[in-house]
Write a structure and sequence with these properties.
This protein has 521 residues and is an alpha+beta fold. It has 18 helices and 25 strands.
Length: 521
């Protein structure tokens, strides 16, 4: 869709944009007289792909112009998922949307890429006053608010089929699992395919994984207690589900049409589930599990959708974009999205609206939020590291196996902060950037690797531990293959520096000043 640029080039462009746009963004809506913003502006917006959201956004922009008659917005509105928009944005900030929506766990990397600037004092005060504390915290890095809360509904709870599961069974995990087994039904929860879901067991026992970021969004430390006595209890709790023949690692509401009696998912699945179950749709907070005589209520993540404005070279356009984003996330606009697609508002007045308080799925989410952990900024590698714990629970034959899984998890977490400098990553090491260190001699970095025959033998130089910060395309100037950027693209991989022509033992070197990769066999 858009030309991919290297992260290095993106960061340089982002720095340039910040230099010329930061002042404009930080003062947007902060004391400027309305008539200074009069004019016509071309604004690109990325909004949810959910049906009707783009049309609703167009209507809301039209109303914004009615209320601000001197401002004309020529809006280009594109649908893109909140999960994908941040990745697309940091790939090419300059070509990205002026206003874009994203999931809160993407905030740190957007700040680090220069795709967002902190809001000014007045705008920050308005956002903080209007929205619940959790959503404001989700929009904050190192004490500064960078964007506008849209929802407070990005959490999960339990849907169940009332024709199979009775109300007196919904509070206990083991009881629910047995009911599914007895009725040859599935219990759907992403316990081994998503850390976002399997973390529920660890939060239940009091475990934490709290990450600290610097002002530039870079992760600096973590307080993680999953590898602990409490973590072992969580693993035993997860076994109750993982060992069952009814266990189905999924969060798809459509599973009810495939034999599920329970699905752990969120508000976004409500219409699908209602269409399948009708009056038999039941909703509730998550159940509890019992280990060694003690009962623990399953926790969860609570989270938010956010709206961001990228840095602008034009100070007036920056102010208009900030003003428009503030409008699109106000009480009225949040309620309109609730009525259209069922999104739970972050705006405190909208949350008290009778239609919102009467919604059964939002009521179940509110009940579960009493046990939820607000999702802060989490290192991107954590999601893959933690999700394997579900598979460990499924395959373990002893408590020792469970503990070994936790120990391996902790080693991977520790490795994220032990890495430094540059790494060389490729098919030969399973694209594992925890095992890719290069030795340093001044500005030169080298590593010797043994490349075996495989379907694809490409590789790349990366900033160690940061998958999102690869150095892009560096010309291979020595070695057997002499492949350049175009050759990598022709091979179907635009994300790599080089491709080995044949198996063998190679020394790969990289100069951090010239950005040249040299390969010798």
């Amino acid at each position: 869709m858009k030309k991919l640029l290297s992260i290095m080039l993106v960061v340089l462009m982002a720095i340039s944009l910040v230099a010329c746009g930061n002042k404009a963004d930080e003062t947007a809506n902060d004391g400027q007289s309305e008539n200074t913003l009069d004019g016509t502006y071309d604004v690109t917006l990325w909004v949810s792909e959910s049906e009707g959201v783009a049309d609703l956004t167009k209507q809301q922009i039209d109303k914004f112009m009615e209320e601000n008659p001197g401002i004309v917005i020529n809006a280009t509105i594109e649908g893109i998922s909140e999960a994908d928009s941040a990745t697309t944005m940091i790939t090419d900030v300059e070509s990205g949307a002026d206003i874009f929506c994203f999931a809160q766990d993407q905030l740190a990397r957007l700040v680090q890429a220069g795709a967002l600037n902190a809001l000014g004092e007045q705008t920050t005060a308005e956002v903080t006053e209007a929205n619940d504390a959790g959503s404001v915290n989700a929009a904050t890095v190192d004490g500064k608010v960078y964007c506008f809360p849209m929802t407070s509904d990005n959490g999960y709870f339990m849907y169940y089929d009332k024709s199979v599961i009775s109300e007196d069974q919904i509070d206990d995990l083991a009881t629910l699992v047995k009911a599914c087994e007895d009725n040859n039904k599935l219990f759907s929860m992403e316990y081994k395919t998503s850390a976002w879901y399997n973390a529920a067991f660890f939060f239940a026992t009091g475990c934490v994984s709290d990450w600290t970021t610097a002002s530039d969004g870079k992760f600096t430390s973590v307080n993680d207690t999953f590898d602990s006595a409490e973590g072992l209890v969580a693993m035993k709790g997860m076994e109750i589900l993982a060992k069952s023949p009814s266990a189905n690692s999924s969060s798809d509401g459509a599973d009810f049409s495939k034999g599920a009696a329970v699905v752990i998912t969120g508000t976004w699945a409500s219409s699908t589930i209602k269409d399948i179950l009708g009056d038999n749709m039941g909703v509730a907070d998550l159940p509890s599990f019992t280990v060694d005589g003690q009962t623990y209520h399953l926790g969860s993540f609570s989270g938010n959708k956010l709206m961001g404005v990228k840095p602008q070279a034009d100070a007036k356009k920056a102010a208009v974009c900030q003003k428009l984003a503030l409008y699109l996330t106000n009480e009225e606009c949040q309620l309109a999205r609730f009525n259209l697609v069922g999104w739970g508002p972050s705006n405190k007045v909208a949350q008290a609206d009778p239609a919102v308080t009467a919604d059964p799925t939002l009521a179940a989410l509110a009940s579960q939020n009493a046990y939820a952990i607000p999702q802060g900024q989490i290192h991107g590698s954590w999601w893959d590291i933690a999700k394997v714990l579900g598979t460990v629970c499924e395959e373990a034959t002893s408590d020792e196996d469970l503990q070994a899984g936790l120990d391996s998890y902790k080693a991977s977490i520790d490795a994220l902060f032990a890495l430094s400098g540059y790494g060389c990553v490729g098919a030969w090491n399973g694209w594992d950037n925890t095992d890719s260190n290069m030795s340093q001699d001044g500005e030169n970095w080298t590593v010797t690797i043994n490349v075996e025959q495989s379907d694809y033998m490409g590789g790349r130089i990366v900033v160690a531990g940061e998958w999102g910060n690869d150095l892009g395309y560096a010309q291979v100037v020595e070695g057997a293959e002499l492949l350049d950027t175009a050759a990598c693209e022709d091979a179907g991989n635009t994300d790599n520096n080089f491709i080995f022509a044949a198996p063998g033992t190679y020394t790969v070197s990289f100069n951090e000043t010239s950005k040249e990769v040299k390969i010798a066999q």
